[in-house]
What we know:
Number of strands of chain B: 2
Strand content of chain A: under 5%
Largest interface: A-B, 55 and 54 residues
Number of helices of chain A: 14
Distance between the termini of chain A: 42 Å
Number of domains of chain B: 2
Shape of chain B: globular
Helix content of chain B: over 70%
Largest sheet of chain A: 3 strands, antiparallel
Oligomer: heterodimer
Largest sheet of chain B: 2 strands, antiparallel
Strand order of the largest sheet of chain B: 1-2
Order of helices and strands of chain A: HHHHHHHEEEEHHHHEHHH
Number of strands of chain A: 5
Low-confidence stretches of chain A: none
Distance between the termini of chain B: 41 Å
Structural class of chain A: mainly alpha
Radius of gyration of chain B: 23 Å
Amino acid sequence: MNAQPPTLLERILKGKWIGKGFLLLVGLVVVWWVGGKALQSPSLFLQQIINGIQLGFVYALIALGYTMVYGIVRLINFAHGDVFMFGAFVSYFSVGLFQLHLWPVRVFPGLSPTAAIILGTVSVILLSMVSCAILAITIERIAYKPLRDAPRISALITAIGVSFFLEYFGALPFVFTPNFITYKRPFEIVTWYVKDGIHRLEIGTEAPPGSVIFSNVLIIIIIVSLILLVGLNYIVRRTKIGKAMRATAYDKPTSRLMGINVDGVISTTFAIGASLAGAAGVLYATAYPQVVFWMGIIPGLKAFVAAVLGGIGSIPGAFVGALIMGQAEVISAGYISTPMRDAVAFTILILVLLIRPTGIFGEPEREKA
Amino acid sequence: MRIDRHTLGFWVVLLGLIILVQVLVSLGILSPFWETLLKIGAVMAIVSLGLNLIYGFNGQFSLGQWGFYAIGAYAAADVTYRWTQMNNASGLTVLFAAVALVGVAFFLTAKLVARLRGIDPLSAFALYIVATLIAAVIGVQIGIALIAPVTQLLATLPPGLALQIVYLIAVLLGGCLAAEVSYLFGLPVLTLGSDYFGIATLGFTIIVKVLLDNSDTLLGFEEMKGARGMVGIPKTTSWFWVALFLVIVIVLLRNLLHSSHGRAIVSVREDEIAAKAMGIDVGQQKTLAFVLGSLFAGLAGGLYAHINGFLHPNTFNFIRSFDPMIIVVFGGLGSVSGTIIAAFTWALVLEGFLRILLPTGFETWRFVVYPLFLLVMMLLRPQGLFGGFEFPYLRPVLPRPYVPETEEQVALVHAVEEATEGD
């Protein structure tokens, strides 16, 4: 037992200074690099931020489904991204083939055009949400429910199987076909640019250099996402089913003892998550107007990363994580190269897991019985 | 060495099958199509055995196997490509020197970290990164200096022999590189819980794939040609090489699992806390399993690269990273024989019979039926097709109870029994 005071080297090593300094160095390099780019061209940077917000809100809607399902059944629902794809296709068919968005004009000829478009768009979104919810309940009943007590890997492999099935079934020539399909929006796109005040950008003209452009797609995405988010928060915090969901997430056997229909609650969770994914599918397709059978894979994974980033099981966490993911993706795509955005997204994930494995809003893992 | 019935039977059957295939190939009865499929089956068996060690035996849910496979494939392909197309041994010497020095650096850093008890994992990781960078830079310089003499030395050999030697070293180096990357990546990530570990390793696979997409611009390896795919790799992987590596991997895995290290690895899967209480260094066992599994993946990647002579980043898409996972689950978690059988079945049925038997236009149906089969199997037989089945030779044997033989030993046992009777 030597009672010597610790040397300087020992103090540096024991005080986690190397790790902290290392992280600080990485953080400073990133800040310096992004800041440099921002100062070079502030308007371009603002434009990227706006694009990132648009993407982030869509990711948030998908991430909520992941986080809710994971919170309750501890399952990474790989099929969630494909439910999102399904939602986009439902809206494609309802708009492109059946022209569902025009029903208000046909039924109420006297309606003002703005109200008719809003009503039409909302009904397209609602249809997608309901179809996705039905799909998710079917998947849950057929594939996941029989495996509720099986080892977790079985459920995970099943989820991967469901995901493959939805993708390749969609790729069949008589279903969605394996090709890219151009998506027809249920409303006309209107673009504004910001330079010395907000001006409307006429179709066929260029915005003046140094201006920031945004469209009604951005506004619709933000409004719809916020409404859905508030609605979800209301359901989870204030209603009886929300209370049952929280109880089931906390302790399944005890909630069953308390008279909660656990299977029903799990189905409802899947349905709510899937309906949010369906809405996200419509919004994503209106923002990036192309649909293809594998379109759900990468957004689904990004959204899952967002959910982990924010702390899985936490609704505000999923939202914040998704916004961060949106910004990271757009900035890395804009300033490094487009394919690198996936690598950056997952690098962020790994870094966050190293520093704070439970995510930004996550509570430390409790021992589950 | 004692040879019992099971050991003898296993080796006779295994070597018999391998020689049978070789004879059929040599006589031209087996068409190149089926030969390629058998090679791919063996390669998948090696990858899946590595994953089975990580997931089936050690309980770490890893989706990163495909990323290490990609690293091994591209590293080995680059070495042989430089030898055959650019007529120098630059890939060989540089990779060899870098891998060797990084290995030394890991060893020295591990000693240093052990000396500095109480250092937090993140700081240790930072030390490892710095050491790796320094070692890699020095290694590359040494490798560049060695290019000319090694090229001259290899040029004195007959060209066919030189190519086989370069190929063999390339495959081994690919495996070592994958193992070193996995060690560095596993240091911080292996401490995460199961789902987080899975998603981090999935992220690793995606990052590797994106980097390979940009390998000519971002990484600066022009011969890899990024997303256009790498061509011109010599097709040196014969059935002999695949079979040899498969046998080596099986024996290695079998002997590991029969050793006390193997039992420690399995005990970590069963109960981490109990294992820790028994004095097992849980982190060390996890690292051992992860690095060995990745080594197998890297070796398999090197073999795969020289089957078709063509590599494309899309082969290493993360979607395909579920293939070894599905093979392991089909074959049964923690079953070596099941994994081997499932890998060959997977290659022969999914890529072979279904492709031939299904009429044209119905090929896409393969991937509709395959997940359905997977779902049905998960519902009806979640332990895998061969769950619990193992060839007797591979079956783990518990250590025999201690039987005292000499009189001294008998007396000692009695003494211990008397001493502990009161408890």
